[in-house]
Automatic annotation (TrEMBL), chain B:
<dbReference type="InterPro" id="IPR052703">
    <property type="entry name" value="Aromatic_CoA_ox/epox"/>
</dbReference>
<dbReference type="InterPro" id="IPR011882">
    <property type="entry name" value="PaaC"/>
</dbReference>
<dbReference type="InterPro" id="IPR009078">
    <property type="entry name" value="Ferritin-like_SF"/>
</dbReference>
<protein>
    <submittedName>
        <fullName>Phenylacetate-CoA oxygenase subunit PaaC</fullName>
    </submittedName>
</protein>
<dbReference type="InterPro" id="IPR007814">
    <property type="entry name" value="PaaA_PaaC"/>
</dbReference>
<dbReference type="InterPro" id="IPR012347">
    <property type="entry name" value="Ferritin-like"/>
</dbReference>
<dbReference type="Pfam" id="PF05138">
    <property type="entry name" value="PaaA_PaaC"/>
</dbReference>
Length: 338, 233
């Protein structure tokens, strides 16, 4: 959005008429014009974005833990390389998303402090453990798969920096999804023990993956406003159904069973119906009572705290370099002046 | 001894160690950088091991005494200073070694020519952090100086002659020492004094003699592959 509101700001009318600003903002959003960091935006819009983008960034970095858990034990060098590259991508996603969030006037340090203090969330899915090697495949196939279904519409999000970050991230997530699928396929077609390992992983990850789309539409707290702001474009249930429709035929090719006896084709709707989701478990995990909530946060805090002296050293060194540069610069100025 | 195997083992073991950092680095940028370095090394290892045999057979089915890596690379990560000291010592060595190999006409020349560019980045990364830690705070200076001292006793082994290698490793010792001294000088750190090898006559990593942490590292790395003999992944 560069025309109306930015011009108003440049002309110094920015404070003149809040109603006009709000109206221009609403009109721009309705016209699918991208909002950029320097544009005027309602505080509630900014707050919603900060909350959502920070949660997304935190999910990328907490999400490194369950997968990094298997880097040292990957059963072939090729798989080790793929997994390392994936975990590295997730760190990269964290970086883009923190930078994108910083365009809203918050700092990464501040966001990390809030994560460590438990005041900002990350995706609940990462509170489940990776117990076997097959979990790495199940995460790629189902968790990255669900993330893509959620995130592809975000590439058209009304906030420019978020939308652009998502374009880049979605490309990499789709690699992760295919690699996870391919890992599971190798297991499923491998020895009976490998097949059992793959089935067990899918049994444990299927339902939590469906929960990644959030509560059912009639209970979703933030949905309506986010839709109006073009941050969100589809309802939770809509995206969840889309995901199920993608997974069912893939599971068939994999030769693995999705652990839902009620899963069946709905002729009328042209999609699959799934059985009831255990929302009590979802709420409990959200509340901190998942299998790994405590470990994930503790691990994150420990990494941050034990790295404090390193960050301090980098800051102190940079300050000394600046000081030295300034001293040298002064000398040069004086010479030039003389 | 098979030189490609020895160099491949160096790269594999260091990649495995660096892989332990993923998700635990002091800043997110370092999660990216350390994993990146690990990936480069893993790529080098796969190429080098494949010159000798099946990469997975070699990585997952050999016993500790069959590994020919130098003891330096198997040392545990310790704190960030220990990791950076290990990186500095090793990447300066690898850059000199691959640089020399790339200029020669041996079968390792093409690989070395490609790897030397990666290794130059690893060396730069280690150098930048050595400067920051050495000339950062009192605490970082102290930790870095201690780490350099702790790992010093594993540096002599790097320059023992390696049979079948087209490069005279002992000849790289002086340039290595000179470069290390240069970086440490700029970082306000001292080059460690004392022995650069242990007094054990059994030998060291190149002879298949390793340190205690190596067995545990291998147990973790190999267990899944070994638990499913004949399976493919
Ligand atoms: Fe990601
Ligand atoms: Fe991903």
């Amino acid at each position: 959005m560069t025309t109306t509101v930015t011009t108003a700001q440049a002309d110094g009318h920015a404070t003149a008429d809040p109603h006009a600003l709000a109206a221009a903002f609403d009109a721009a959003v309705a016209d699918e014009v991208r909002i950029e960091p320097r544009d005027w935006m309602p505080d509630a819009y900014r707050d919603t974005l900060v909350r959502q983008m920070a949660q997304h960034a935190h999910s990328e970095i907490i999400g490194m833990q369950p997968e990094a858990n298997w880097i040292t034990r990957a059963p072939s060098l090729r798989r080790k390389a793929i997994l390392m590259a994936k975990v590295q991508d997730e760190a990269g996603h964290g970086l883009y998303l923190y930078s994108a969030t910083e365009t809203l006037g918050v700092s990464r340090d501040d966001l990390l402090d809030k994560l460590h203090a438990g005041r900002q969330r990350y995706s609940s899915i990462f509170n489940y453990p990776t117990l076997t090697w097959a979990d790495v495949g199940a995460i790629g196939w189902l968790v990255d798969g669900a993330a893509i279904t959620n995130q592809v519409p975000l590439c058209r999000c009304s906030y420019g920096p978020y939308a652009r970050a998502m374009v880049r991230i979605c490309k990499e997530e789709s690699f992760h999804q295919r690699q996870g699928y391919e890992l599971l396929l190798a297991l499923s077609r491998g020895t009976p023990e490998q097949h059992a390992m793959a089935q067990d992983a899918v049994n444990r990850w299927w339902w939590p993956s469906l929960m990644m789309f959030g509560p059912p539409d009639d209970e979703s707290a933030h949905s309506a406003q986010s839709m109006a702001w073009r941050i969100k474009r589809h309802s939770n249930d809509e995206l969840r159904r889309r995901f199920v429709d993608i997974c069912v035929p893939q599971a068939e090719i994999l030769g693995l069973t999705l652990p839902d006896p009620d899963l069946r084709w709905n002729e009328e709707r042209g999609g699959y119906d799934h059985g009831p989701i255990d929302w009590a478990e979802f709420r409990e995990v959200l509340r901190g009572n998942g299998p790994c909530n405590r470990e994930r946060l503790e691990r994150r805090r420990a990494a941050h705290e034990s790295g404090a002296w390193v960050r301090q050293a980098a800051v102190a060194y940079a300050a000394k370099q600046r000081e030295a540069g300034r001293a040298a610069g002064h000398g040069a100025d004086q010479e030039a002046g003389a | 001894m098979n030189a490609a195997l020895a160099l491949g083992d160096d790269a594999l073991v260091l990649a495995q160690r660096l892989g332990e950092w993923a998700g635990n680095a002091p800043v997110l940028e370092e999660d990216v950088a350390l994993t990146n370095i690990a990936l480069d090394l893993l790529g080098q290892a796969r190429t080098l091991l494949s010159l000798t045999g099946d990469e997975d057979e070699l990585a997952f089915r050999r016993e500790a005494h069959e590994f020919r890596n130098v003891q330096l690379v198997e040392q545990p990560n310790g704190d960030f200073a220990d990791t950076i000291a290990r990186q500095l010592y090793f990447s300066v060595y690898q850059e000199l070694l691959y640089g020399a190999l790339a200029e020669g006409g041996s079968e390792l020349a093409p690989l070395a020519g490609k790897a030397v560019k990666e290794v130059a980045y690893h060396r730069d990364h280690a150098e930048q952090w050595t400067l920051r830690l050495g000339d950062g705070t009192e605490e970082s200076h102290r930790r870095m100086q201690r780490a350099l001292g702790t790992l010093w006793r594993f540096t002599g082994e790097l320059f023992e002659p390696l049979e079948g290698l087209a490069v005279e490793l002992p000849a790289l010792h002086a340039p290595w020492r000179e470069r290390i001294a240069g970086v440490l000088g700029r970082a306000t750190l001292e080059i460690p004094e004392g022995a650069d090898r242990t007094a054990w006559s059994a030998g060291a990593g190149r002879q298949g003699v390793h340190t205690e942490p190596f067995g545990r590292m291998l147990a973790e790395m190999q267990y899944l592959h070994r638990a499913h003999p004949g399976a493919s992944w």
